């Protein structure tokens, strides 16, 4: 963002140390909120100005800051319309002002003769229009910014003083500066000033900022890099430089997508934990390298926020990198302290590994009866019992998709999928659940397929995570997720807005991604029905009716499929059209979305869409019947019937090979016979049998469209004329039909 003409406002909220994980969201909220206040206060020079061109945010563990530029010094003057009593109450029968009119005029400080008649939504009233002078930017900001800051929310808040103030951490100073002048305000008991604070240990604690655009320069001179991106880039470059010096690279976290370079999540976290970053290298005893790499990397990053180093071969080095908030470590004190702490952490990890390995994973699984899945849904042991038939139900679909699935491995993986929840290692490092189970299964000699299925069944954890690598892992993942979804929706817990305590959005999205990514065709309705039915034996307290849970869950799937299709660049109406026809098979639905999107650029698509809309309009509220060839009286209807029967094998063949665009092209060939039908045949004939038969012909054609999508959801330019044409075809009298 480059500086723009106009005034600049700088706000800095100085606090005690803010947890690193909370800073990014806080800066986003602060920037968005400040822009909203500026925009609503009419301090921007025009309409259509982008937030990114106006507000820039800065943040460190001890400060949240925002700078807005290009502001007006004052609001533009405004013409304000003030309404008073209705005209009927303001004037008597002779047209003379009443006491109501006189009182209103007196309250506004104007003679009663200056009142005007104004049209309002409530009818004609008396009132006046007067010019209101704009207020200064300083006055508006002083009024609005304290409320904005007080409204910011965080995952955890603190109170201080007598408990009347609440923020992420106690506030120590407020810097509020408009151009070169202070903006006087009080935020959560702290009065604003012109000073900021440098680095907590290395910098001065009271520094005057003379100008909003010298903010970064002033802080840098006192060992604070306020810009988050600049600080992150500096940390990254220094980490890479030191790693190269060791002949290594930064290790990716366990479970990261293939090809992930470094540890972006940890990089962002350490960036937000320091103000003046310095990279410190250290070593640990090489004997710890006999532990699995996933455990070592997690032990280093989980508690210590250390980066592991790997060689090009993927082998871990007994070296690590830490990011300290300091200028250097000339005596090696920070390095020694880090090595001492890490030695203890790795010793703990070795102890957990050795203790857990005293019994096989199957023995750990016996403890799942004592581990609660959900207080109303029973134990993990019961969950495993429900997952087994669900996993069996999805296997045929995987096999039809051409995926070689080891059925025995899937069954064993399901039985052991949650066994690591009882281990010391997962209790210490919860983010390794699944991964530890896979390691222990491999160490028990249970085979690569079982181990990979256990390790991968939590994937994908998020929208950007990879899919399970093996079909066995994908099958276990589907069974796990759908069982959980059925239980949560049976409890009536449907995600709304930002509230999703059980991660149902991620879970449902994961099922959709697996089915689409693995090209597996299966009925969602059948799977959900099976999962809900499996809970029927458990007698869930406070559950909603199964039919309601099923309906809510499938509707939730519809929303996630819509989101997934649109996020892949498909037109929203193409996505809606495909889902309106059917969303039961997510992979097929995705193919139909893409086909609808692709065929839109072809000549004749609009005519195709309008034809289906016309048919749908005619068929509205009409009873469903099958066409009878014996009742085909007109040449045009016989020709249309022959065309439909001739096209049907080609349409079915195209859909059998999942060529939905090809099916649509075959349907489009019916355009000529269909147009002739509408021109020459009276659909709504007086003869009830003829009318029913002609509607049945149209219904058979409409059902062909619905094999791909509901074209009433498609937006086309000539859409406005379609209903009229359909209505005309259905109602014009016999004498005008040709």
What does this structure look like?
The protein has 738 residues and is α+β, with helices and mostly antiparallel strands. The protein folds into five domains: 7-75 and 136-220, Alpha-Beta Plaits, CATH 3.30.70; 78-132, no CATH class; 228-356, no CATH class; 365-568, no CATH class; 577-736, Isoleucyl-tRNA Synthetase, Domain 1 (Orthogonal Bundle). The strands form six sheets. Strands 1, 2, 3, 9, 10, 11 and 12 form a seven-stranded mixed β-sheet that branches. Strand 2 (55-60) and strand 3 (63-71) form a beta hairpin. Helix 12 packs across helix 15.
Compute the average pLDDT: 90
Number of domains: 5
Strand content range: 5-15%
Helical proportion, percent range: 40-55%
Strand count: 20
Short summary of the structure?
By secondary structure, this protein is of the alpha+beta class. The protein has 5 domains: 7-75 and 136-220, Alpha-Beta Plaits (2-Layer Sandwich); 78-132, no CATH class; 228-356, no CATH class; 365-568, no CATH class; 577-736, Isoleucyl-tRNA Synthetase, Domain 1.
Can you give keywords for this protein?
disordered C terminus; 48% helix; 20 strands; 7-stranded mixed β-sheet; 4-stranded antiparallel β-sheet; alpha+beta; 738 residues; Alpha-Beta Plaits
Write the layout of secondary structure elements.
Blueprint: E1 7-15, H1 20-40, E2 55-60, E3 63-71, E4 78-86, H2 87-90, H3 99-108, E5 116-120, E6 123-132, H4 137-151, E7 158-160, E8 165-167, E9 171-178, E10 181-182, E11 186-187, E12 190-193, E13 195-196, E14 207-208, H5 215-220, H6 228-245, E15 249-250, H7 264-271, E16 277-283, H8 293-302, E17 307-310, E18 316-325, H9 333-356, H10 361-365, E19 372-374, E20 378-379, H11 380-400, H12 407-416, H13 424-428, H14 435-443, H15 448-456, H16 471-490, H17 504-517, H18 524-535, H19 546-567, H20 572-581, H21 586-599, H22 605-619, H23 635-656, H24 660-668, H25 671-680, H26 688-705, H27 722-731
Parallel strand pairs: 9-12
Antiparallel strand pairs: 1-3, 1-9, 2-3, 4-6, 5-6, 7-8, 9-10, 11-12, 13-14, 15-17, 16-18, 17-18, 19-20
Helix pairs in contact: 1-4, 6-7, 8-9, 11-12, 11-16, 11-18, 12-15, 12-16, 14-15, 15-16, 16-17, 16-18, 16-19, 17-19, 17-21, 18-19, 19-20, 20-21, 21-24, 22-26, 22-27, 23-24, 23-25, 23-26
């Amino acid at each position: 963002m480059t500086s723009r003409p106009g005034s600049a406002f700088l706000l800095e909220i100085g606090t005690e140390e803010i947890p690193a994980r909370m800073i990014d969201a806080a800066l986003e909220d602060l920037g968005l909120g400040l822009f909203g206040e500026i925009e609503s206060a009419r301090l921007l020079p025009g309409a259509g100005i982008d937030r990114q061109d106006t507000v820039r945010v800065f943040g460190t563990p001890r400060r949240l800051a925002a700078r807005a530029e290009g502001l007006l010094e004052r609001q533009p003057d405004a013409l304000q319309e003030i309404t008073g009593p209705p005209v009927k109450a303001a004037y008597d029968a002779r047209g003379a002002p009443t006491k109501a009119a006189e009182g209103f005029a007196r309250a506004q400080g104007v003679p009663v003769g200056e009142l005007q008649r104004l049209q309002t939504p409530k009818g004609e009233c008396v009132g006046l229009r007067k010019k209101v002078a704009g207020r200064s930017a300083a006055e508006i900001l002083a009024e609005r910014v304290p409320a904005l800051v007080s409204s910011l929310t965080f995952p955890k808040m603190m109170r201080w003083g007598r408990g009347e103030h609440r923020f992420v951490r106690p506030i120590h100073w407020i810097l509020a500066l408009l151009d070169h002048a202070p903006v006087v305000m009080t935020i959560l008991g702290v009065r604003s000033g012109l000073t900021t604070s440098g680095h907590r240990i290395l910098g001065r604690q009271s520094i005057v900022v003379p100008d909003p655009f010298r903010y970064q320069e002033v802080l840098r001179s006192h060992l604070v890099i306020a810009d988050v991106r600049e600080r992150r880039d500096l940390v990254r470059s220094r980490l890479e430089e030191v790693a190269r010096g060791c002949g290594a690279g930064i290790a990716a976290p366990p479970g990261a997508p293939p090809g992930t370079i470094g540890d972006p999540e940890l990089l962002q976290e350490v960036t937000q934990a320091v103000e003046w970053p310095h990279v410190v290298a250290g070593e640990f005893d090489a004997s710890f390298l006999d532990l699995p790499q996933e455990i070592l990397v997690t032990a280093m990053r989980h508690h210590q926020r250390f980066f592991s180093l790997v060689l090009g071969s993927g082998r871990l080095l007994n070296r690590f990198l830490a990011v300290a908030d300091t200028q250097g470590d000339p005596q090696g004190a920070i390095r020694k302290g880090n090595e001492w702490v890490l030695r203890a952490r790795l010793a703990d990890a070795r102890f957990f590994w050795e203790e857990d390995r005293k019994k096989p994973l199957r023995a750990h699984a016996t403890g799942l009866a004592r581990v609660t899945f959900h207080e109303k849904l029973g134990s993990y042991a019961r969950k495993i019992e429900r997952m087994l038939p669900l996993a069996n139900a999805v296997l045929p679909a995987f096999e039809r998709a051409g995926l070689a699935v080891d059925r025995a491995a899937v069954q064993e993986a399901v039985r052991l999928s949650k066994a690591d929840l009882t281990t010391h290692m997962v209790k210490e490092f919860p983010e390794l659940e699944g991964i530890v189970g896979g390691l222990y299964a491999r160490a028990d000699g249970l085979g690569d397929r079982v181990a990979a299925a256990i390790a991968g069944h939590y994937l994908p954890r998020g929208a950007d995570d990879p899919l399970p690598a093996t079909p066995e892992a994908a099958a276990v993942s589907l069974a796990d997720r759908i069982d959980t979804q059925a239980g949560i929706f049976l409890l009536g817990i449907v995600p709304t807005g930002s509230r999703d305590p059980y991660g149902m959005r991620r879970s449902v999205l994961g099922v959709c991604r697996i089915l689409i990514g693995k090209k597996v065709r299966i009925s969602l309705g059948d799977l959900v029905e099976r999962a809900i039915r499996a809970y029927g034996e458990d007698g869930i307290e406070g559950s909603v009716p199964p039919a309601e849970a099923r309906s809510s869950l499938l509707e939730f799937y519809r929303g996630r499929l819509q989101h997934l299709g649109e996020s892949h660049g498909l037109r929203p109406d193409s996505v809606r059209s495909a889902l309106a026809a059917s969303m039961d098979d997510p992979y097929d639905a995705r193919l139909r979305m893409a086909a609808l999107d692709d065929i839109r650029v072809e000549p004749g698509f609009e005519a195709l869409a309008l034809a289906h809309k016309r048919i749908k309009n005619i068929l509205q509220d009409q009873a469903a019947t099958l066409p009878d060839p014996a009742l085909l009286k007109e040449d045009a209807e016989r020709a249309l019937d022959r065309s439909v029967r001739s096209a049907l094998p080609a349409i079915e063949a195209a859909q059998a090979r999942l060529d939905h665009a090809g099916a649509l092209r075959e349907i489009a060939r019916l355009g000529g016979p269909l147009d002739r039908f509408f021109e020459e045949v009276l659909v709504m004939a007086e003869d009830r049998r003829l009318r029913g038969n002609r509607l049945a012909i149209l219904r058979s054609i409409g059902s062909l469209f619905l094999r791909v999508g509901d074209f009433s959801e498609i937006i086309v330019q000539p859409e406005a004329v379609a209903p009229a044409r359909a209505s005309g075809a259905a109602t014009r009298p016999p004498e005008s039909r040709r």
